[in-house]
Amino acid sequence: MVADTSKLSWMTTKLDAALGWARKFSIFQYPFVTACCGMEYMATATSHYDMDRFGAGFPRFSPRQADVLFVVGTISHKLAPVLRRIYDQMADPKWVVAFGVCTCTGGFYDNYATVMGIDTVVPVDIYIPGCPPRPENVLDGLMKLQEKIAQGASAKDPLGPAGRPRELQVPHRPEAHLWSAK
Ligand code: SF4
Fold it and tell me: CA-CA distance, 38 to 144, in Å (whole number)?
């Protein structure tokens, strides 16, 4: 006799949806803040923009208690292994937000010391470009992150430039990168 599993799959689908809904309003963020974008990050955290209404107003300063890694500011090659270690210390499921164009692509830096995008070090789920991004951009990115969390999706590999949104795939000096813009 073959067991009827249709009801079971209906229940697990509903359970996943309920978990996704709960998770998207329960964001425990770890702020990895290194540079000037931190000012705008703090501005966004004020009562005027009210990140609490997205369930994201409570930062955690231990990666083991966080599920969203906010990378805010320039990342140097010396700092990259530290960033990777913080990411590895977070429990699954986890998400990464690149805050500011320095984290997205390296920004206006074009030198031996700066990582040309944190997506060469850790998987990135949401890119928020801008130098620095306005709080409204940050909230837009936060809502996109909520959609992704609700769907239960998260980036698994550091994809580098190929995984970026199209508008972030144009380097300011193509010969400095491992790929060339067509
Ligand atoms: S994107 Fe601009 S504001 Fe943000 S860390 Fe880089 S230089 Fe500073």
Answer: 21
> What order do you get walking across the sheet with 95-99 strand by strand?
29-33, 68-72, 95-99, 126-128
pLDDT in single tens digits along all 182 residues of the chain: 666 777 778 778 888 888 889 889 999 999 999 999 999 999 999 999 999 999 998 899 999 999 999 999 999 999 999 999 999 999 999 999 999 999 999 998 888 899 999 999 999 999 999 999 999 999 999 999 999 999 999 999 999 888 999 888 866 554 554 433 33
Q: What are phi and psi of 126, to 5 degrees?
A: -130, 130
Q: Cα separation of 116 and 32, whole Å? A: 17
Pocket (CB within 6 angstroms of ligand 1): 35-37, 73-74, 100-102, 107, 131-132
Please state the pTM of the whole predicted model.
0.88
